[in-house]
Specification:
Blueprint: E1 3-5, E2 8-9, H1 14-17, H2 20-30, H3 48-52, H4 59-67, H5 75-90, H6 95-103, H7 108-120, H8 127-139, H9 142-158, H10 165-171, H11 173-189, H12 193-207, E3 210-211, E4 216-217, E5 222-223, E6 230-231, E7 236-237, E8 242-243, E9 248-250, E10 262-263, E11 268-269, E12 274-276, E13 280-281, E14 286-287, E15 292-293, E16 301-305, E17 308-313, H13 319-322
Parallel strand pairs: 3-6, 4-7, 5-8, 6-9, 7-10, 8-11, 9-12, 10-13, 11-14, 12-15, 14-16
Antiparallel strand pairs: 1-2, 16-17
Length: 332
């Protein structure tokens, strides 16, 4: 998915994944104007893995996503460009901003690097330097290239206030924080720890999100709002996790070593949840807003309270996708 030249970007072949009807549906969705009264169509037919998660998708489709790395197509990037063009036409005052941020670039990696660099720059850490760092790391990591697309799809599918792929790329600090962390984590893994910590510091200052560069975060992640999220050094967050604002994945003291939570796949974590210590949050579980979690959470369970206790079980395989995190009286 990284741009290899001005003429080619890494992606997937839509023609091999869609029927003729689905192709027409996608083309119709990309030409929908901003003044239309109909609900904009999304790319869940193009990338069913993005929208539904691996647990609910056909494994042959997942294999297609993994092996079609030489295709010049990139439907996520195409959708972002089309949306930017439509917005530029309807809001001319934003046309220069949209051209500089999206339309002047050849691929998502370039555009994202530009957006992030301009958000994080300061008088001593220049945007041009940051752009070089972001673009170099992203273009050399197929994992990051895949993750930035899975993440933006997660925002589109699970955040009702996310109007478009374009708006997620340009404005949502939860998305921005995640992508800068991915770059910082790659730098940390390469031994460039001081630079990784510098990026962590800028994320914290600009976005109010503090993620240690050593933390391991999966793909298809939603950081809704993002403000106040703290993720410690040895924390692990699985794929398709949805996390609301002011969540803490922290330690319990001054101990060193593996000391932070391990969050399984498909977990939904409500606002202002605090999870402390080297404990396991089972896959597909849901943690109610304001809870303090100090013990392991069983898979597909609902926990609430201070300290949190199991109050029920969820029916969905992945509650992170439905985003139904209200604890009703039926569970009390």
């Amino acid at each position: 998915m990284a741009c290899l030249s001005k003429e080619r970007c890494w992606g997937v072949s839509i023609s091999k994944m869609l029927s003729e009807d689905d192709k027409q549906s996608f083309m119709d969705s990309t030409t929908t104007t901003t003044n239309s009264s109909s609900t904009p169509k999304r790319l869940d037919k193009v990338f069913p893995v993005y929208a539904l998660g691996i647990s609910k998708s056909n494994h042959s489709q997942l294999e297609q996503l993994s092996h079609l790395s030489n295709s010049p197509q990139d439907p996520i990037w195409d959708a972002i460009r089309q949306e930017a063009k439509l917005v530029a036409e309807s809001e001319p005052i934003l046309s220069s901003f949209l051209y500089a941020s999206i339309l002047s670039h050849d691929c998502l990696e370039q555009a994202l690097g530009f957006v992030l660099a301009n958000r994080l720059q300061n008088p001593t850490l220049l945007a041009t330097q940051l752009m070089d760092i972001f673009y170099d790391v992203m273009t050399h990591s197929k994992t990051i290239q895949r993750s930035i697309r899975l993440d933006v799809q997660a925002f589109m599918d699970r955040d009702p206030s996310c109007l478009s792929y374009c708006s997620a790329l340009l404005y949502l600090k939860g998305y921005h924080s995640l992508q800068v962390h991915r770059v910082a984590h790659a730098l940390w893994s390469q031994g460039r720890k001081v630079l990784a910590l510098a990026l962590q510091s800028r994320i914290s200052e600009v976005f109010g999100v503090d993620i240690h560069p050593a933390a391991i975060i999966g793909e298809g992640i939603l950081l809704d709002h993002g403000t106040g999220v703290v993720i410690g050094e040895t924390a692990v967050v699985g794929n398709r996790v949805s996390m609301m604002q002011a969540v803490t994945l922290g330690g319990t003291g001054k101990e060193v070593g593996d000391r932070h939570p391990k969050v399984g796949e498909g977990v939904l974590i409500g606002a202002s949840v605090t999870i402390l210590g080297n404990i396991k949050i089972g896959h597909g579980s849901m943690i109610a807003a304001g809870s303090l979690v100090l013990k392991d959470v069983p898979p597909h369970s609902i926990v609430a309270g201070m300290p949190a206790k199991v109050i029920g079980y969820v029916d969905e395989q992945d509650p992170c996708l439905s985003m139904k995190h209200d604890v009703t009286k039926d569970f009390i």
